[in-house]
Amino acid sequence: MNRMFLQVFLVSIFAVFALSAVAQPERYVAGTHYSELESPVRTADASRIEVIELFWYGCPACYQFEPLIANWEKNAPADVDCKRLPAVWNPITRLHARAFFTAQRLNVIDDVHNPIFDAYHRQGNRLHNQKTLAELFASQGVDTDDFDSAFESFSVVTKLNQAEKTMNDYGNAGTPTLYVNGKYIVTLADAGGNYQEMLNIVDFLVDKERRALKPAV
Questions:
Q1: C-beta separation of 37 from 182 below 8 A
Q2: Chunked in runs of 10, what are the mean pLDDT values of the chain (217 residues)?
Q3: pLDDT at position 33, please?
Q4: CA angle (134, 135, 137) in 5-degree steps
């Protein structure tokens, strides 16, 4: 075998392997494992990959999903911007969403987020009005007057209305749902009812977006 023939042979072999790698199907497919928006939603920071969890405190699946998503957010890479978006469908979800934004305004979200979930799902407290929410916040050290002031503030109402608009921009969905970088939607049904698989799909989409954002060399 002469040198020229060997070179051609090796180039051919490498080409076959390269084409094979390219031709391999992606692990997750749009329309099966996630949905792709026709019109992307604008994200807060175009230099980072935004992942939003749509949730409701009264949702049993969200309650079960919470430890997994919390751990995922804690260990998310620096280029991932993690956010929570409370669902706003009706008066009770609107009330709970308002409590979420109140906690953010008072900078006590880390103190009350899990207790709100626990009160609803473990203690049977449906948190059906402002008074019961104020009592729960008070149990975590928040002054009732401070709670009421924040709960009734213009900034909290504004965030509530913005949350409703964001939901409409993505298209109404059940909870939990994950929105990835304004382009993709991952539901529990997409993941076959498996919470961890939801996060696996999101990891796939985050990597997909990371490759798209990486500048060409």
A1: yes
A2: 47 44 72 96 96 98 98 97 97 98 98 98 98 98 98 98 96 94 98 98 97 71
A3: 98
A4: 65
Task: Identify the burial level of 77 via C-beta atoms within 10 angstroms of its C-beta, where 0-12 means exposed, 13-18 middle and 19 or more buried.
Answer: exposed
| 142 within some domain | yes
Q: In angstroms, rounded to a whole number, what is the distance separating the alpha carbons of residues 44 and 23?
A: 35
Q: Is residue 37 domain-shared with residue 137, that is, in the same domain?
A: no
Residue 2: predicted pLDDT: 55
Asked whether residue 123 falls in the same domain as residue 137, the answer is yes
Q: Rounded to whole angstroms, what are the CA distances from 75 to 95, 125, 180, 195, 203?
A: 30, 31, 17, 17, 12
Does residue 36 belong to any structural domain of this protein?
A: yes
pTM summary value: 0.87
Are residues 169 and 180 both part of a single domain? no
Let me know if residue 44 belongs to a domain.
yes
pLDDT of amino acid 21: 40
Residue 134 domain flag? yes
**Is residue 201 a contact partner of residue 187, using CB atoms and an 8 Å limit?**
no
Note whether 79 and 186 are same-domain residues: yes
Residue-range definition of the domain harbouring residue 55: 26-87+175-209
Give dist(CA 75, CA 172) in Å, integer: 28
Closest by Cα among 215, 189, 108 to 151: 108
